[in-house]
Amino acid sequence: MTIFEILKFNRELLERLRNIGVRLEDTRYIDLFGEFNDMVLAGEKVSYAVAVLAEKYGISERKVYSLVRHFRNDCNPGAV
Fold it and tell me: Looking at the record's lineage, which domain of life comes first (predicted)?
């Protein structure tokens, strides 16, 4: 199966996800966000969790904060 065929088959779903603010690169950081939530629920300070995850995933702390903020956003209900 080609990339074109996959995109064509999933076009409606992909368009809906894009319209509500989901980016394709978000899938890369699903585990990061889960780990962040687990660490904070376990009592770790946010700044510590961010520093650990930035090191683990090889990204900046600023990017981790940005991802956390992005994943906490509500979806745009009018787009669905």
Answer: Bacteria
